[in-house]
Amino acid sequence: ALNLISEGITDYREVLRVIHPDSDQAVELEAMEPVSAAPAPAEEPLQEVKPPTEEAPLPVTERESPAEAPPPDTARSESASATLLLVEDSRTLRAIARKFLEAKTNWKVLEAADGLEGLNVLEHHSVDAIVLDLKMPHMDGFEFLERIRGNPSTAGIPVVILSGMEGEYITRGMKLGADDYLIKPFDGQALIEKIRNLLDRSRILIVEDNKTMRKMARRIIEKKTAWQVYEAEDGLQALEFLKDHPVDAIVLDLMMPNMDGFEFLQHLRFNPETALIPVLIVTALEGEDSELKSLELGADDYLVKPYKASILIARLRRLLERAGEIRQKGKSVKAA
User: Fold this and answer.
1) What is the rounded CA–CA span in Å between residue 163 and residue 184?
2) Which is it for strands 249-252 and 203-207: parallel, antiparallel or unpaired?
3) Is the same domain home to 136 and 194?
4) Helix or strand run (H / E) with residue 204
5) Domain span at 277
6) Which of 120, 123, 152, 213 has CA 20 to 30 A from 205's CA?
């Protein structure tokens, strides 16, 4: 339906005839909000991350412990077959958004016409994410957010605000616990990307001895994604961390004390429990020899400092997608 809008079909009745070609049901359109396809938002300027002056290695007694991680049996959320709840009072917009999301993804979309209906749906269904309008009758998006964040069984569900209201209204919604927002009229693909970011709870381990670079990489990842990020300051600490905490990808420096990145890779690939974890090398070493040696030892990609923040995220996304495809193929083979 969004494609129809982009092709100039903006009358709701024409759109609905395409969505529901066999339906003669009259639709009241007067109170419904306009929907049109907007161009994708302009990309923010690329942020260049430069390595600071190397810090002296911390004494062993002052070394940091890796950030706490969930227990080993905590399953990574998979976004491939998620269930969404769309809370929106405009029946037309609900129909368009649902049709678009289900056509472009494998997600199942449940609907609610206002906050009260949304709460009722949540009593009977488990959902992975919520797309929420703010201005609705009976119960608006603000009260709905307060209610779900105050309920332990729904407090952790990620929420994307989808509203024509801007400024202070969005600020209020974010303070009440929304995770992201998109302003109407909206781009359908942008909505999908925001939902995917919230559904993807991948676990990333950063192995880097320079505390400033480690914290900078962590801030970039946490700002751009919903991934869980953990830290280790050298290869030895990382191997110890991995004994009890599974991760989905590793960002690895090469030049580190105690155990450098090359030796860490050898240990990682030798252990069947960690052999398939994707590894992105992020280092100041630019030589072809270092890159070749890393790849031969099992690294999946190589990025030289200074790097662009968007490139770091793109490389990690690609590694996670490949790993997901490999897991899916493995499941298919076992099922066969």
Assistant:
1) 5
2) parallel
3) yes
4) strand 203-207
5) 201-335
6) 152
Which residues pair with residue 250 across a beta bridge? 205, 279
The C-alpha atoms of residue 30 and residue 84 are separated, in whole angstroms, by: 27
How far is 265 from 127, CA to CA, in rounded Å? Answer: 38
In angstroms, the CA 229 to CA 63 distance is 18
The DSSP 8-state label assigned to residue 234 in this structure reads S
pLDDT tens figures, 15-47 = 444 344 333 333 333 333 333 333 444 444 444
> Maximum CA pair distance of the chain?
76
One domain for residues 172 and 239: no
Q: Which two tokens stand for residue 167?
A: 């400024």
3-state secondary structure of 307: strand
Residues 87-99 pLDDT 10s: 999 999 999 999 9
Q: Quote helix, strand, coil % in the chain, to nearest 5.
A: 40, 15, 45
Helix (H, G, I), strand (E, B) or coil at 130: strand
Name the residue among 96, 85, 187 with its Cα closest to residue 133: 85
Q: How many domains does the chain have?
A: 2
Query: Is the whole model's pTM more than 0.90, yes or no?
Result: no
Which residues, in sequence order, are CB contacts of 32 under 8 Å at separation 6+? Answer: 12, 90, 91, 92, 93
129 with 250, same domain?
no
Q: Are strands 48-49 and 307-308 parallel, antiparallel or unpaired?
A: antiparallel
